[in-house]
């Protein structure tokens, strides 16, 4: 089965915009089958009727003209954004012109993997887990139109995960986002257009998060309280904006680099990355904590790789749980009427039929509850999005109840699909020529493909990494470090 060109073009285009094309293990494309069908763009009224309330899909976000709710929220948050922290680099991740102090004053993860903010009142990022021998299960870049087989696998194995959805993807594939919600996965934000967040000015960073929140709310009915920065590109300025919107920041400890299969890494390369995690487990590295391992639903290939690796994950870890469970967070969404999540001990009991075998399942609510307690410090007064605010912000302009029911009723209509990884190269090739972009221009779901303006410097992936600490500026080591983290 095939992934339609369209299915991956948007995501591949932004990857391509940040990566130097490399030799690829090209495979013959297969353009038939169920994936092509399930990845055919469609118009869901709930999205179509509300497009005017959102920035253009896949374009870097700004506050929509006339959106006073967003503007007021931004004005509120803006008051506590430190002017000393400036935007860094380009949206595509070129930081070659950035001069940055080696002491890492902004807690810039891209520079130092810093996860302990230096601005008072900010919560630590979540990168490891308190529960030993636990794999924190999460996937970035969805919802992917071809994810049904993968989500079937998760359900069949009684797995729920933390899904970091791209706002534009949610608008493109609302039924797939609804499936994520209906399957019980924890929905978090992964920005509107998937660019390097520290490159945005304050308003742009706000809008990237704000409209992703609204997209998830519009399509799934819930307001997320967590997010992960694309490429891990975050500093304290971005953290303040995120927390001002009620989002806790999630990063990762280890990285499979699975998405790099788009750019020429082989399956064996990625298998080795997984194996490195398993080897660490065998050495007892996770006896005192659990880990968050970065994985993606970006392509069928990355999803299939997880399925292949899952038996080994089970062999090497006691528990595989969503991130909220691993941190005993039960307030998954702003809406108080939504179901609560489970604390770790209860989840283990329900899903593994056993009691927790180590006494660490105390309430380790690392991140303050934005709906109940607010944050300490300067954010305390602004970090509490209320249901009323959310409802006001997502009030449909023309959406009718029939629109909602239409979208809802067909929320899992695509799940007969099948995946195939072979189309990645094909899509990538396709992407090189705009002539091949399908004629969706009149479709409201047309992708606004980012132009392929990448520099050769741009690029880390998940940001991961091991950028070694620069001596005085980021300039000198940039090229070297980028090559290390590809
Ligand atoms: Zn991503």
CATH fold label of the domain at 50-85 and 122-409: TIM Barrel
Tell me the name of the CATH homologous superfamily of the domain at 50-85 and 122-409: Glycoside hydrolase/deacetylase
Write down the overall mean pLDDT: 74
Proportion of beta-strand residues: 5-15%
User: How many angstroms does the end-to-end distance come to?
Assistant: 29 Å
Low-confidence stretches: 1-32, 363-378, 396-486
> By helix and strand content, what is the structural category?
alpha/beta
Q: Tell me about the biggest sheet? A: 7 strands, mixed
Give the overall shape, derived from the CA principal axes. Answer: globular
Bound molecules: zinc ion
Amount of helix: 25-40%
CATH architecture of the domain at 50-85 and 122-409: Alpha-Beta Barrel
At the first level of CATH, what is the class of the domain at 50-85 and 122-409?
Alpha Beta
Descriptive account of the structure:
The structure is a single chain. This protein is α/β, with parallel strands linked by helices. The protein has a domain at 50-85 and 122-409: Glycoside hydrolase/deacetylase (TIM Barrel). It has helices at residues 5-16, 34-38, 45-48, 68-78, 109-112, 148-156, 167-172, 174-182, 202-220, 236-244, 267-282, 300-316, 323-326, 344-352, 387-393, 401-409, 423-431, 475-485, and strands at 128-129, 134-142, 162-165, 186-189, 226-227, 248-249, 254-255, 290-294, 319-322. Strands 1, 2, 3, 4, 7, 8 and 9 form a 7-stranded mixed beta sheet that branches. Strands 5-6 form a two-stranded parallel sheet. Helix 1 packs across helix 17, helix 9 runs parallel beside helix 10 and helix 11 (267-282) packs parallel to helix 12. The longest helix is centred in the middle third of the chain and has 19 residues, at 202-220. Mean pLDDT is 74; it is low at 1-32, 363-378 and 396-486. The structure holds zinc ion. Residues 140-141, 190, 194, 230 line the site of zinc ion. Residues 133-322 form the NodB homology domain. InterPro entries: Glyco_hydro/deAcase_b/a-brl, NODB_dom, Polysacc_deacetylase_ArnD. Residues 390-464 are annotated as: Disordered. It is found in: Cell membrane; Secreted, Cell wall. Its cofactor is Co(2+).
């Amino acid at each position: 089965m095939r992934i339609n060109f369209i299915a991956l073009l948007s995501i591949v285009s932004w990857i391509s915009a940040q990566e130097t094309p490399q030799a690829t293990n090209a495979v013959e494309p297969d353009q038939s089958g169920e994936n092509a069908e399930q990845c055919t763009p469609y118009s869901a009224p709930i999205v179509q009727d509300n497009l005017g309330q959102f920035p253009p899909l896949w374009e870097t976000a700004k506050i929509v003209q006339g959106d006073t709710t967003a503007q007021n929220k931004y004005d509120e948050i803006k008051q506590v954004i430190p002017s000393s922290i400036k935007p860094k680099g380009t949206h595509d991740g070129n930081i070659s012109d950035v001069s940055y102090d080696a002491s890492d004053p902004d807690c810039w993860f891209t520079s130092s993997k810093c996860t302990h903010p230096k601005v008072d009142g900010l919560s630590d990022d979540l990168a490891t887990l308190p529960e030993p021998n636990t794999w924190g299960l999460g996937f970035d870049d969805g919802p992917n139109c071809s994810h049904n087989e993968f989500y079937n696998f998760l359900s069949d194995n009684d797995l729920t995960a933390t899904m970091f959805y791209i706002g534009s993807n949610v608008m493109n594939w609302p039924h797939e986002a609804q499936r994520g919600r209906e399957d019980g996965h924890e929905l978090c934000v992964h920005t509107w257009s998937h660019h390097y967040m520290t490159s945005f000015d304050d308003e742009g960073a706000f809008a990237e998060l704000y409209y992703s929140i609204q997209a998830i709310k519009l399509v799934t009915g819930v307001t997320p309280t967590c997010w992960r920065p694309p490429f891990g590109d975050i500093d304290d300025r971005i953290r303040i904006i995120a927390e001002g919107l009620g989002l806790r920041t999630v990063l990762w400890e280890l990285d499979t680099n699975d998405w790099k299969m788009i750019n020429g890494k082989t399956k064996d390369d990625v298998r080795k990355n997984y194996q490195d995690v398993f080897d660490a487990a065998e050495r007892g590295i996770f006896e005192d904590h659990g880990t968050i391992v970065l994985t993606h639903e970006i392509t069928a290939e990355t999803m299939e790789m997880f399925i292949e690796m899952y038996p080994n994950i089970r062999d090497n870890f006691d528990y595989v749980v969503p991130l909220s469970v691993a941190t005993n967070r039960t307030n998954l969404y702003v809406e108080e009427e939504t179901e609560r999540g489970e604390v770790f001990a209860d989840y283990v009991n329900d899903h593994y039929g056993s009691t927790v075998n180590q006494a660490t399942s105390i309430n380790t609510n690392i991140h303050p509850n934005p709906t109940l307690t607010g944050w300490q410090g300067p954010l305390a007064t602004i970090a509490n999005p209320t249901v009323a605010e959310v409802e006001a912000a997502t009030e449909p302009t023309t959406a009718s109840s029939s629109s909602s029911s239409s979208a809802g009723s067909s929320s899992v209509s695509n799940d007969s699909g099948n995946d195939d990884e072979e189309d990645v190269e094909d899509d990538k090739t396709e992407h090189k020529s705009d002539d091949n972009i399908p004629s969706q221009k009149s479709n409201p779901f047309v992708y606004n493909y980012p132009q392929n303006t990448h520099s050769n410097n741009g690029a880390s992936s998940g940001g991961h990494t091991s950028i070694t600490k620069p001596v005085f500026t980021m300039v000198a080591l940039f090229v070297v470090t980028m090559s290390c983290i590809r």
